[in-house]
């Protein structure tokens, strides 16, 4: 890597951290973000207790910015990927998106039923077919909510339904087939077990799932559909952080 490129990366990181810290300061104080080169300049208290609290708030924000910044970097990467997906979705339109997922997951369901039925444990084929149907519907809903526009609706609904559309059928297939799980999705199976058995129970959700759902058939589609929401919210949030720090027009 050339020295110029390294310096460019350092400057970009420094710019991001500065803007994030200014955003933190602006939660309480006016004229903080991008105010250095304006006519009025950045607002600062002149002295006394106000200056003490200003500096204390700044000191509190510094380590928080350091903790959050890796998520911003993840958001940059995900934003780049979602842009490519968005371009494809716009070209296809709703009918094209639905047709694509019908072809993709319909083929998986057909293979599970007619070609590899013996590779799945009891109820596995039914679960894969159910998951494929849920994923196709989720793809349509994700597209609709994304086209409605607005960051809140996109993060709240479009991202979770997209997670369901992309990951639910292969995850369910992995949970019912040792060959699939070992080859591709063993880490996701471990994550599912951890979420249901070891992670902190939020508002009794895990107890409810363990008591009311068996790990078979349609229950898998329901459990992973529910799991897709916090995953989608997390991914949507880090993309939002990336947009906040460095908007797409910069």
Characterise this structure.
The chain has 250 residues and is mainly alpha-helical. It folds into 2 domains: 3-67; 70-245, no CATH class. It is built from 7 helices and no strands. It has helices spanning 3-26, 48-115, 124-148, 151-176, 178-197, 205-212, 217-245. Helix 3 runs parallel beside helix 7 (217-245). The longest helix has 68 residues, at 48-115. The radius of gyration is 23 Å and the shape is elongated. The model has no long low-confidence stretch (mean pLDDT 78).
Shape: elongated
Strand-residue fraction? under 5%
**Rg on CA atoms, Å:** 23 Å
By DSSP (H or I, 4+ residues per run), the number of helices equals 7
Helicity level, as a percent range?
Answer: over 70%
Q: How many domain regions?
A: 2
Give the helix/strand class: mainly alpha
Q: Can you count the beta strands?
A: 0
Order of helices and strands: HHHHHHH
């Amino acid at each position: 890597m050339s020295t110029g490129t390294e310096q460019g990366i350092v400057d970009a990181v420094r710019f991001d951290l500065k803007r994030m810290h200014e955003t933190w300061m602006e939660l309480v104080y006016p004229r903080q973000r991008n105010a250095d080169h304006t006519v009025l300049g950045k607002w600062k208290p002149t002295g006394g207790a106000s200056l003490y609290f200003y500096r204390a708030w700044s000191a509190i924000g510094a380590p928080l910015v350091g903790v959050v910044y890796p998520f911003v970097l993840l958001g940059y990467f995900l934003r780049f990927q979602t842009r490519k997906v968005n371009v494809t979705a716009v070209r296809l339109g709703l009918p094209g998106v639905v047709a694509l997922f019908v072809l993709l997951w319909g083929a998986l369901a057909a293979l599970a039923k007619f070609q590899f039925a013996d590779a799945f444990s009891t109820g596995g084929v039914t679960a894969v077919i159910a998951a494929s149907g849920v994923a196709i519907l989720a793809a349509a809903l994700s597209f609709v909510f994304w086209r409605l526009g607005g960051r809140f609706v996109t993060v709240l609904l479009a991202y979770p339904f997209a997670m369901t559309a992309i990951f639910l059928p292969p995850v369910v297939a992995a949970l019912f087939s040792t060959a699939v799980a070992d080859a591709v999705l063993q880490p996701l199976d471990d994550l599912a077990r951890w979420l249901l058995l070891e992670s902190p129970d939020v508002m009794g959700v895990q107890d409810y799932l363990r008591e009311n759902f068996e790990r078979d058939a349609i229950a898998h589609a329901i459990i992973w559909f529910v799991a897709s929401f916090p995953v989608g919210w997390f991914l949507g949030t880090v993309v939002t952080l990336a947009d906040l720090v460095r908007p797409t027009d910069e």
